[in-house]
Amino acid sequence: MRTIFYARVSTREQTIRHQIDHARQAGFKFDDRDVLIDEGVSGVSVPLRERPQGRRLFDMLRRGDTLVVRWLDRLGRNYQDVTETVREFMAQGVVIRTVINGLTFDGATKDPMQKAMRDAQIAFLAALAEAQADALKIAQRAGIEHARADAASRPRVYKGRKPSFDRASLDVVNQMLAAGEGPSAIAARTGLTRQTVLRIRADPAAADEALLAWGG
Protein backbone atom coordinates (compact mmCIF):
# COMPACT_ATOMS: atom_id res chain seq x y z
CA MET A 1 0.00 0.00 0.00
CA ARG A 2 1.30 3.44 -0.89
CA THR A 3 0.23 7.05 -0.63
CA ILE A 4 0.25 9.10 -3.82
CA PHE A 5 -0.11 12.87 -3.93
CA TYR A 6 -1.63 14.33 -7.10
CA ALA A 7 -1.74 18.03 -7.95
CA ARG A 8 -2.67 20.15 -10.93
CA VAL A 9 -1.51 23.72 -11.54
CA SER A 10 -2.82 25.55 -14.58
CA THR A 11 0.06 28.00 -15.03
CA ARG A 12 3.82 27.91 -14.65
CA GLU A 13 3.62 30.85 -12.28
CA GLN A 14 1.69 28.79 -9.74
CA THR A 15 3.97 26.89 -7.39
CA ILE A 16 3.42 23.32 -6.35
CA ARG A 17 5.87 23.42 -3.45
CA HIS A 18 3.46 25.08 -1.01
CA GLN A 19 0.81 22.47 -1.83
CA ILE A 20 3.22 19.63 -1.08
CA ASP A 21 4.40 21.31 2.12
CA HIS A 22 0.80 21.94 3.20
CA ALA A 23 -0.06 18.28 2.68
CA ARG A 24 2.91 17.10 4.72
CA GLN A 25 2.20 19.60 7.46
CA ALA A 26 -1.32 18.17 7.60
CA GLY A 27 0.21 14.78 8.43
CA PHE A 28 0.28 13.05 5.05
CA LYS A 29 3.39 10.98 4.40
CA PHE A 30 4.48 10.20 0.85
CA ASP A 31 7.76 9.84 -1.03
CA ASP A 32 8.83 12.38 -3.63
CA ARG A 33 8.61 9.62 -6.26
CA ASP A 34 4.91 9.33 -5.44
CA VAL A 35 4.15 12.99 -6.22
CA LEU A 36 2.42 13.47 -9.58
CA ILE A 37 2.02 17.00 -10.94
CA ASP A 38 0.26 18.20 -14.07
CA GLU A 39 1.51 21.69 -14.95
CA GLY A 40 0.01 24.07 -17.47
CA VAL A 41 -3.12 21.93 -17.76
CA SER A 42 -6.62 23.35 -17.61
CA GLY A 43 -8.87 21.59 -15.12
CA VAL A 44 -11.87 23.10 -16.90
CA SER A 45 -11.27 21.60 -20.34
CA VAL A 46 -9.01 18.56 -19.81
CA PRO A 47 -10.33 15.46 -17.98
CA LEU A 48 -8.03 13.61 -15.61
CA ARG A 49 -7.45 10.65 -17.95
CA GLU A 50 -6.18 12.98 -20.69
CA ARG A 51 -3.61 14.75 -18.52
CA PRO A 52 -0.06 13.30 -18.69
CA GLN A 53 0.25 12.62 -14.98
CA GLY A 54 -3.45 11.85 -14.69
CA ARG A 55 -2.92 8.88 -16.99
CA ARG A 56 -0.03 7.73 -14.80
CA LEU A 57 -2.25 8.06 -11.77
CA PHE A 58 -4.78 5.59 -13.17
CA ASP A 59 -1.94 3.17 -13.96
CA MET A 60 -0.25 3.47 -10.56
CA LEU A 61 -3.13 3.21 -8.12
CA ARG A 62 -3.85 -0.21 -6.65
CA ARG A 63 -6.32 -1.57 -4.12
CA GLY A 64 -5.42 -0.35 -0.65
CA ASP A 65 -3.56 2.74 -1.90
CA THR A 66 -4.37 6.24 -0.68
CA LEU A 67 -4.74 9.14 -3.10
CA VAL A 68 -4.14 12.57 -1.56
CA VAL A 69 -5.38 15.72 -3.33
CA ARG A 70 -5.63 19.30 -2.17
CA TRP A 71 -9.36 19.30 -3.00
CA LEU A 72 -11.76 17.20 -5.08
CA ASP A 73 -11.74 19.70 -7.95
CA ARG A 74 -8.22 18.46 -8.82
CA LEU A 75 -9.81 15.23 -10.09
CA GLY A 76 -12.07 16.50 -12.85
CA ARG A 77 -13.47 19.26 -15.01
CA ASN A 78 -16.95 19.55 -13.57
CA TYR A 79 -19.54 17.93 -11.32
CA GLN A 80 -20.04 14.82 -13.43
CA ASP A 81 -16.34 14.33 -14.13
CA VAL A 82 -15.34 14.64 -10.47
CA THR A 83 -18.04 12.35 -9.11
CA GLU A 84 -17.38 9.66 -11.72
CA THR A 85 -13.63 9.74 -11.08
CA VAL A 86 -14.02 9.54 -7.31
CA ARG A 87 -16.45 6.64 -7.57
CA GLU A 88 -14.20 4.80 -10.02
CA PHE A 89 -11.22 5.05 -7.69
CA MET A 90 -13.29 3.94 -4.70
CA ALA A 91 -14.60 0.96 -6.68
CA GLN A 92 -10.96 -0.04 -7.24
CA GLY A 93 -10.36 -0.01 -3.50
CA VAL A 94 -8.51 3.32 -3.42
CA VAL A 95 -9.04 5.66 -0.48
CA ILE A 96 -9.21 9.36 -1.39
CA ARG A 97 -8.21 11.98 1.17
CA THR A 98 -8.23 15.77 0.87
CA VAL A 99 -5.74 18.16 2.41
CA ILE A 100 -8.40 20.85 2.84
CA ASN A 101 -10.75 19.88 5.69
CA GLY A 102 -9.14 16.43 5.98
CA LEU A 103 -11.99 14.54 4.29
CA THR A 104 -11.80 10.80 3.58
CA PHE A 105 -13.72 8.90 0.90
CA ASP A 106 -13.52 5.13 1.22
CA GLY A 107 -15.44 2.64 -0.89
CA ALA A 108 -15.01 -0.18 1.63
CA THR A 109 -18.08 0.62 3.70
CA LYS A 110 -21.02 -1.73 3.20
CA ASP A 111 -23.54 0.02 5.42
CA PRO A 112 -26.21 1.51 3.10
CA MET A 113 -26.74 4.60 5.25
CA GLN A 114 -23.03 5.39 5.41
CA LYS A 115 -22.75 4.85 1.65
CA ALA A 116 -25.66 7.22 1.03
CA MET A 117 -24.14 9.91 3.25
CA ARG A 118 -20.73 9.49 1.63
CA ASP A 119 -22.13 9.71 -1.90
CA ALA A 120 -24.22 12.75 -0.99
CA GLN A 121 -21.14 14.49 0.38
CA ILE A 122 -19.16 13.73 -2.78
CA ALA A 123 -21.97 15.06 -4.95
CA PHE A 124 -22.33 18.23 -2.88
CA LEU A 125 -18.60 19.01 -2.87
CA ALA A 126 -18.25 18.36 -6.59
CA ALA A 127 -21.21 20.64 -7.32
CA LEU A 128 -19.75 23.29 -5.02
CA ALA A 129 -16.41 23.19 -6.83
CA GLU A 130 -18.10 23.65 -10.20
CA ALA A 131 -20.26 26.48 -8.87
CA GLN A 132 -17.21 28.28 -7.48
CA ALA A 133 -15.41 28.01 -10.82
CA ASP A 134 -18.45 29.40 -12.63
CA ALA A 135 -18.79 32.24 -10.11
CA LEU A 136 -15.14 33.20 -10.64
CA LYS A 137 -15.61 33.41 -14.40
CA ILE A 138 -18.77 35.50 -13.98
CA ALA A 139 -16.99 37.86 -11.56
CA GLN A 140 -14.12 38.30 -14.00
CA ARG A 141 -16.51 39.15 -16.83
CA ALA A 142 -18.45 41.57 -14.62
CA GLY A 143 -15.26 43.33 -13.57
CA ILE A 144 -14.16 43.79 -17.15
CA GLU A 145 -17.58 45.10 -18.21
CA HIS A 146 -17.57 47.56 -15.32
CA ALA A 147 -14.10 48.80 -16.23
CA ARG A 148 -15.16 49.12 -19.86
CA ALA A 149 -18.19 51.24 -18.97
CA ASP A 150 -16.15 53.37 -16.58
CA ALA A 151 -13.43 53.97 -19.15
CA ALA A 152 -15.95 54.90 -21.82
CA SER A 153 -17.52 57.54 -19.56
CA ARG A 154 -14.24 59.30 -18.73
CA PRO A 155 -12.55 61.83 -21.01
CA ARG A 156 -9.40 60.40 -22.57
CA VAL A 157 -6.48 62.76 -23.02
CA TYR A 158 -3.43 60.58 -23.56
CA LYS A 159 -4.13 57.26 -25.20
CA GLY A 160 -0.77 55.70 -24.41
CA ARG A 161 0.96 53.11 -26.56
CA LYS A 162 -1.26 51.35 -29.07
CA PRO A 163 -2.03 47.81 -27.87
CA SER A 164 -0.43 44.92 -29.74
CA PHE A 165 -3.73 43.04 -29.56
CA ASP A 166 -7.19 43.63 -30.97
CA ARG A 167 -10.62 42.98 -29.47
CA ALA A 168 -10.87 39.45 -30.86
CA SER A 169 -7.49 38.36 -29.50
CA LEU A 170 -8.21 39.97 -26.11
CA ASP A 171 -11.47 38.04 -25.88
CA VAL A 172 -9.62 34.81 -26.64
CA VAL A 173 -7.00 35.59 -23.98
CA ASN A 174 -9.67 36.28 -21.34
CA GLN A 175 -11.60 33.14 -22.23
CA MET A 176 -8.48 30.96 -22.02
CA LEU A 177 -7.42 32.58 -18.75
CA ALA A 178 -10.86 31.90 -17.29
CA ALA A 179 -10.47 28.28 -18.38
CA GLY A 180 -7.18 28.04 -16.49
CA GLU A 181 -4.86 27.98 -19.53
CA GLY A 182 -1.25 29.08 -19.05
CA PRO A 183 0.41 32.13 -20.70
CA SER A 184 2.58 30.04 -23.03
CA ALA A 185 -0.39 28.12 -24.43
CA ILE A 186 -2.36 31.35 -24.85
CA ALA A 187 0.55 33.09 -26.59
CA ALA A 188 0.88 30.18 -29.02
CA ARG A 189 -2.86 30.26 -29.74
CA THR A 190 -3.16 34.04 -30.24
CA GLY A 191 0.25 34.95 -31.66
CA LEU A 192 0.82 37.47 -28.86
CA THR A 193 3.99 37.49 -26.80
CA ARG A 194 3.98 35.73 -23.46
CA GLN A 195 4.73 39.06 -21.73
CA THR A 196 1.66 40.60 -23.33
CA VAL A 197 -0.49 37.75 -22.05
CA LEU A 198 1.00 38.17 -18.57
CA ARG A 199 0.18 41.91 -18.61
CA ILE A 200 -3.39 41.20 -19.64
CA ARG A 201 -3.75 38.59 -16.91
CA ALA A 202 -2.33 40.98 -14.30
CA ASP A 203 -4.76 43.77 -15.20
CA PRO A 204 -7.53 42.77 -17.65
CA ALA A 205 -9.38 46.03 -17.02
CA ALA A 206 -6.34 48.08 -18.09
CA ALA A 207 -6.02 46.01 -21.25
CA ASP A 208 -9.65 46.62 -22.08
CA GLU A 209 -9.30 50.33 -21.36
CA ALA A 210 -6.27 50.59 -23.64
CA LEU A 211 -8.30 49.11 -26.48
CA LEU A 212 -11.16 51.49 -25.83
CA ALA A 213 -8.75 54.42 -25.89
CA TRP A 214 -7.72 53.40 -29.39
CA GLY A 215 -11.27 52.77 -30.50
CA GLY A 216 -11.04 48.99 -30.15
Considering the chains and any ligands shown, give keywords for the structure.
216 residues; alpha/beta; Rossmann fold; 5 strands
Please outline what is shown here.
The chain has 216 residues and is α/β, with parallel strands linked by helices. It has eight helices and five strands; from the N terminus they run βαβαβαββααααα.
Q: What is the chain-wise order of helices and strands?
A: EHEHEHEEHHHHH
- The DSSP helix count reads 8
Structural class: alpha/beta
Helical residue percent?
40-55%
CATH superfamily of the largest domain: Resolvase, N-terminal catalytic domain
Share of residues in strands: 5-15%
Describe this structure in words.
This protein has helices at residues 17-25, 52-60, 79-91, 112-153, 167-178, 183-190, 194-202, 204-213, and strands spanning 3-9, 35-39, 66-69, 95-98, 104-105. It folds into two domains: 3-113, 3-Layer(aba) Sandwich (Rossmann fold), CATH 3.40.50; 131-213, no CATH class. It is elongated. The protein has 216 residues and is an alpha/beta fold. The chain has a five-stranded mixed sheet with strand order 2-1-3-4-5, with helices on both faces. The longest helix has 42 residues, at 112-153.
